[in-house]
Amino acid sequence: ILGIQGEREPGRFIVQVTGTISDVRVLNDRGQFIPMEMNYQGDHVLVNAEVLEPGNYFVQAVVNGMPVLRPVILTSNGVIGG
């Protein structure tokens, strides 16, 4: 239902869904919401996470009315999504 893939540009990733996506949030490993620049484009959202330090994060989204949580690892070389 929800996948995450890194973009060619460092610090950016796409949240891709099958269905309708709303209310996308990025959280740190302590569950704290981190404001991010996001560009909603139909069935996916481009997230600009350039301000984040490398580490473990989570993407929380509402997909087809249901909450979904996926891990994201930011490295100095890119993004690894779940």
Report on this model:
By secondary structure, this protein is an all-beta fold. The protein is 0% helix and 63% strand. The chain contains no helices and nine strands. It has strands at 2-6, 12-17, 21-28, 33-34, 37-41, 44-48, 55-63, 66-74, 79-81. The strands form two sheets. The chain has a five-stranded antiparallel beta sheet, with no helix packed on it. Strands 1-2-6-5 form a four-stranded antiparallel beta sheet, with no helix packed on it. Strand 3 (21-28) and strand 4 form a beta hairpin. The model has no long low-confidence stretch (mean pLDDT 87).
**What is the element string, with H for helices and E for strands?**
EEEEEEEEE
| Strand line-up across the major sheet | 4-3-7-8-9
Give the N-terminus to C-terminus distance in angstroms: 11 Å
Q: What is the rounded Rg? A: 11 Å
Strand content: over 45%
Q: Total number of β-strand segments? A: 9
Structural class: mainly beta
Overall, the morphology is: globular
Q: State the assembly state of the protein chains.
A: single chain
